[in-house]
Structures are given as C-alpha cells and as structure tokens.
Give the backbone structure.
Amino acid sequence: MIKLLSPILIAFLFSPIWPLGPNPLPGDPLVIVNKNNNELAFVNENRVQTVVSVGTGKTKELTPEGLYTITVKAKDPYYRRGNILGGDPKNPLGSRWIGFDAEGTDGRTYGIHGTNQPASIGKYVSQGCIRTQNEVISSLFPLIPLGTKILITTSKKSFEALAREQGAIK
C-alpha cells in the first residue's frame, strides 16, 4: 500500500496546485528587484502593475540575488538591531516590512521596507535590505501575499522579460 501511495504522493507534492510546486504561475503576483537600476516591479494579473525606485546594498554582495519567497509581513516593524519600537520616527525600517527567505534566513533578516531616510532611495546604501518610500511600501503591502516569489537580479532586461522568464506573465 505504501509503495502505491508513494507515486501518488510524489505527484501531488510536485503538482502546480501544491504550495511548494511551480510558482509563480501566469497571473500570480511576483516582485522583481533589479539592482542594475535600483528599481522594484510588482507584477500581477499577467502584467507589470507598477515600478518604483528602491535602495539596495552598499556592495553587490549585500543584497543577495536569486528567487526567494515572501515569508513575513509586519506593520510598524520592531528594529532589533537598534532596539527601536515600530512607529518610532527613528526606526529605519519605516512603516512596513515584507521579509523573504534569502540565504536560508526566515524572513526577518532580509526584506523590503520603508525608511526614515527618503533621500537614500535609488542609491546603494543598505546592509542588504531593499528600502523604499513609506508610502510605496504601505500601498504594496496589502497586494503582496505571503508565499509570493521575489526575484532579485542585476540585469539589463526589461521587467516584462524577467517576469516572462519566471512564468508570471504568459
């Protein structure tokens, strides 16, 4: 009986309907960060919905490249390193945190977040996170569900081409 169930179980685990299966599927949300021009695109419903400016790592290695998964979301995030409560104007994480599992982390080390330093947007300034305007992260926050894929790359390709390669656009 176990031998009979094993192929069925394996097929189910790797099917597109299983959460660990292929993702994104056409129409699924996808976040793309291009370190080449420090821009973030939100892709949903088979098209690039918006493109915004972001700040990324001071060096190329600080913001890791790859395809990751959004695992944590928080409003008014607590800044552990500085022991600063969420909502405090001194908090460098701004009003929202969207964490992802880069380099085997749990979504609490790397993330997209707001900032209390808006002049840093568009520059290579962070310790690895992706920062954007508080208004931008607040508007994207409800649109990006847990489990959404995030692609971080350095590329000269368009966001449409990158999304197509990832399967988020037909």
Observations:
- Residues 1-6, 8-21 have pLDDT under 50 and may be disordered.
- The longest helix spans residues 2-13.
